[in-house]
Amino acid sequence: MGKTLIRGAKVLGGEPQDVLIDGETIAEVGTGISAEGAEVIEAEGKILLPGLVDLHTHLREPGREDSETVLTGTKAAAVGGYTSVHAMANTFPVADTAGVVEQVWRLGKESGYCDVQPVGAVTVGLEGKKLAELGAMHDSAANVRVFSDDGKCVDDAVIMRRALEYVKAFDGVVAQHAQEPRLTEGAQMNEGIVSAELGLGGWPAVAEESIIARDVLLADHVGSRVHICHLSTAGSVEIVRWAKSRGIDVTAEVTPHHLLLTDELVRTYNPVYKVNPPLRTERDVMALREALADGTIDVVATDHAPHPHEDKDCEWGAAAMGMVGLETALSVIQHTMVDTGLIDWAQVADRMSFRPAAIGRLEGHGRPVSVGEPANLTLVDSAYRGAVDPAGFASRSRNTPYEGRELPGRVTHTFLRGRATVVDGKLA
Amino acid sequence: MKRHLISAADLSRDDAVLILDTAEEMARVADRPIKKLPTLRGRTVVNLFFEDSTRTRISFEAAAKRLSADVINFSAKGSSVSKGESLKDTALTLEAMGADAVVIRHHDSGAPHRLATSGWIGGSVINAGDGTHEHPTQALLDAFTMRRRLAGGEGDLNGRRITIVGDILHSRVARSNVHLLTTLGAEVTLVAPPTLVPVGVETWPCEVSYDLDAVVAKSDAVMMLRVQRERMNAAFFPTEREYARRYGLDGERMARMPGHAIVMHPGPMNRGMEITAEVADSPRCTAVEQVTNGVSIRMAVMYLLLGGNEPALSTPSTTSTTRTEENK
To answer: What pLDDT is recorded for position B320?
Structure first.
């Protein structure tokens, strides 16, 4: 592998600098670096970020290859500027054994577009009854450190307590999908003014908040860390803020869609807006933005959830929950957080690369843009404006809520250990 | 008129009054020896029922037939739908067969909206009840019944006090009635145990009370909703008896209603639960009349949606001439 010189990019949004990649690592950072022997990328005006890290991706393989595969999902990740994604465990079969996580890990290696870090299920079959072999998944080639029954809540307080305690042995973390199941039976959308009018089953905020409250107290009691998936309500923000103020080791993520969209969109009954947790209210959106800005929410995670066309081209009640997000995440964050002045690009790097890598205990990702570090990099044209066109997605699925919506910013280049996976906005 | 009837909220006061006035004309057809108009001859109306509802289906069927339309009944049970066919493919099939109007009853809220806006079909869509969302023709026939009994069969329901009692949370009848009755100028009060009132009701244009006795004496009409006995298993209320005592309408409560006030029920009734036999069989109860009026309302809706810009009857009254002018 040769040399690449990225010339004049604003590193983390700061002063323009040249960055020389030699092989798999960053060889030089500075100004006026010689281009001799290097391929040159003129990056004046563009933003250079560390490769993005997603803590929450559904790659669907094995089992639902009609919606996404590890290959198509990692291509979508690369297009979105990601160099590492955590693959959620709710596949068929469930990633609850060393065998399945190793399979997913190996498929990621073979894809070559983006590193895939499998997430292991907390309980066998995501059923919430019996702990999966968490240690075996950690000890496997996949080296699992994040465990989650995502899609389902670990609602049994004793199972949750044991999981929190058990993973301490190998510095693991339980990522909780906070949803009290009894309070959300038949739930179709956020419970409130809109659900009352539309006659759709309500998903109350308290179903999320009560689990988060319980779990931060459990984590405190047993001295474990806990991670909250896709936090979606203003009340959840308050609980996490309180827990952090008490020194409880809790981290939390928010999805791009919960930072932009509200339950008013459900009035169209278009299932592209059907997602779990559901789209909330304007008040929640504003609280989430504020929490991401002040660090109460640690990271942005996509909850990229591909579904085949037929699962969305139907009536609301019959539709699947979820949205794709890898290819639009950075644009939504620029739109909602950067262009609004809430955070700068250095904080984008923090929330979308440094912190998610730290939570997942990833090595080689979420590293500073400095000499000797792995060349996992993302170059962003923040001046770009364009309408979202799902027909051009690298993902196998098209279930985006942003079709036709104009969003700012575009990833022009992604480098995975020095190799360009995306060049001029296209897969290399 | 619009092309579809999905929600009572889509109807303006003038739309609603036009439908009620047209239904009055349609009702006159029922008094003739031959209960049939040639208006929709050669047009095809499909009754697409994903939920069992014989009462509603035969009402729409009778209405379409009295307008001389060809009627196809498509029931989900025993059809391709029960073999896993999607709403989309069913819709495309009906479109290919040339359906001019699809009357849809579906267990999912929003299914008629989806059918009307997805581009799957070109004909009119009439919502015959979707999930816990709306049932606009039921609200129209209720308003029609109230207008006849309380307002001389003309105009709107300005200032009339209507009380709707029962499972508001799961009721499409209540949602449609709140929209339509307030559009027509009525003052609506919902009465239910707090468990059966939706979170978010505070933005609805009506009052909410948990105390039936406090409102019966001030009501021009009391509409009792069917309450499914299974609800008590989900802890919405403790027992049938307790529900009946607190929220059921018996002879004693009915006696406290004003002399002119009526009792309504969309049917089917749970006698002994939300209504006692004494009330159900009293002359103040309009349940059977509502069924009759349902046919007239559905005739009016189909007539207006399917391009009825001729007077409904060959010998229109003077008022109906004015109305048809507005309609053009």
So the answer is: 39
- Residue B248 counted as an annotated binding residue: no
Average pLDDT along chain A:
98
Reported as a single tens digit per residue, the pLDDT across A364-398 is 999 999 999 999 999 999 999 999 999 999 999 99
CATH architecture of B136-289: 3-Layer(aba) Sandwich (3.40)
Q: Within 13 Å and on the Cβ side, how many CA atoms surround A357?
A: 21
Distance from the A154 Cα atom to the nearest Cα atom in chain B, whole angstroms: 23
Please calculate the CA angle A362-A368-A372 and round it to the nearest 5 degrees: 90
pLDDT tens per residue across span B269-302: 999 999 999 999 999 999 999 999 999 999 999 9
pLDDT at B328 (0 to 100): 34
List chain B residues with CB under 8 Å of A263. Answer: none
Are the beta carbons of A192 and B200 separated by less than 8 Å? yes
Question: What is the architecture of the domain spanning A3-47+373-427?
Answer: Roll (2.30)
- What is the CA A288 to chain-centroid distance, rounded? 15
Q: Provide the pLDDT for residue B82.
A: 64
CB of A81 within 8 Å of a chain B CB? The answer is: no
Cβ–Cβ contact A194 with B under 8 A: yes
- Chain B: which residues have CB within 8 Å of chain A? 86-88, 106-111, 113-114, 117-118, 130-134, 172, 175, 198-204
Distance from the Cα of A149 to chain B's closest Cα (Å) equals 27
* Whether residue B315 has pLDDT greater than 50: no
| Measured distance CA(A194)–CA(B200) in Å, rounded | 7
Length of chain B: 328
CB under 8 Å to B325, separation ≥6 — which residues? none
Mean pLDDT of A278-297: 98
Non-local (6+) Cβ contacts of A99 within 8 A are none
Please count the residues of chain A: 428
ipTM for this prediction: 0.90
The predicted pLDDT at position B78 comes to 64
- What residues in A contact B91, CB-CB < 8 Å? none
pLDDT of residue A74: 98
Q: Which helix (H) or strand (E) holds B280?
A: helix B277-280
The whole-number average pLDDT for the span B82-106 is 89
User: Chain B residues with CB inside 8 Å of A182's CB?
Assistant: none
Q: Is the pLDDT of residue B319 over 50?
A: no
Task: Tell me whether the CATH fold assigned to B8-134+290-318 matches the one assigned to B136-289.
Answer: yes
Domain B8-134+290-318 adopts which CATH fold?
Answer: Rossmann fold (3.40.50)
| Residue ranges per structural domain of chain A | 3-47+373-427, 51-359
CA B66 from chain center: how many Å?
19
Give the active site residue among A149, A303, A350, A381: A303
| A177 carries a ligand binding annotation | yes
A22: β partners: A3, A25
- Is A215 labelled a binding residue? no
Q: Does the annotation flag B172 for ligand binding?
A: yes
**Known catalytic residue at A303:** yes
The Cα of A269 is separated from the nearest Cα of chain B by a number of Å equal to 6
Q: Show me where the domains of chain B are located.
A: 8-134+290-318, 136-289
State the architecture of A51-359 in CATH terms. Answer: Alpha-Beta Barrel (3.20)
